[in-house]
Amino acid sequence: MNNNLHIITADTVREILDQYPLELYEIIKNSYILHDQQGSINAPSSFLFFPHRPESRIIALPAAIKPNQEKFNEISGIKWIASYPNNKLKHMPRASAIIILNHPDTGFPMVCMEGSLISATRTALSGIVGAEYLYNKDKSCKSLGLVGNGFIAKHIVKYLFLLGWKIENIHLYDKFSSSVEDFRQYIQSFGDLKITIHDSVSTLIESCSLIAFTTTEKIPYLNDHNLFKHKPCILHISLRDISPDIILDSINVVDDSEHILAANTSVHLAYERNKKDASFITATIGQVVQQKQTIPKNKTIVYSPMGLGILDLSVSQFVYDKVKKQDLKNIENFFPS
Q1: Stated pTM of the model
Q2: CA distance 256 to 258
Q3: Over the stretch 235-256, which tens digit does the pLDDT of each residue have?
Q4: Where in the chain is the domain with CATH 3.30.1780.10?
């Protein structure tokens, strides 16, 4: 028995993720197909909330890939991710995470790796899968809006450009002006792009055909149906920005039709408002990718990916397989003999 535990730190994770954007995109897309075909196990996420610190939370996402899958090896593991928005005031990242992968035969943890970069990457790429299959397969966008200009938004922009998207105009809104300015400078590193900064989320929505929400809001605040009369495509990454009434009046695509009905997401609140009838959910993204379901464009499209643990696992497994070919850091005799 091997008593060692492998360790993969942020620098190594970042190096791997930056080298393989196309491969990672395919991994996320295939993970959705795998999930739709019941090749994965995604246990419900567990949320740890703090009455004395209501803005913060820590989430556990356990998952597994079943044996004998065409494009994936059997694996299990968990992501443990903290979200502390007030860390910004301390000049620290909002999110921190680790991911542990377990051996499929023994259950012993094989590797512990930095997880916030993997989490941000899979979150961004899951949104981009939605953009391609719900907005435009030609990978072009005249007006992209980004509500919330932090870590996840940066990853969305990064991977859009790495994956060859052509974007004419980028619109920004964040309630923290420092975040907007920092994000503007980051975007300009990709070239001479037209960037518009908005003083309100309303004007941004009205100006854009594709909008990504990556805020830390806990209660839906967008209630005006008129803001969406131009029928945009919404990548509702942060899950709690749009009111239940607007959700019910839109075409809804999710990553998992059961997991999304929890934790006071906008879709969950719409489900409760709709007398616990989930028929307003049109499809899962896995169904759309496999062309099992065609999505009409006669209404606003809202894509709400709850965030499946299988995405973290599949990306982590890819990183681990790459690093195993190099020198792994070990903690020897971590487990008892």
Answers
A1: 0.96
A2: 6
A3: 999 999 999 999 999 999 999 9
A4: 5-118+310-331
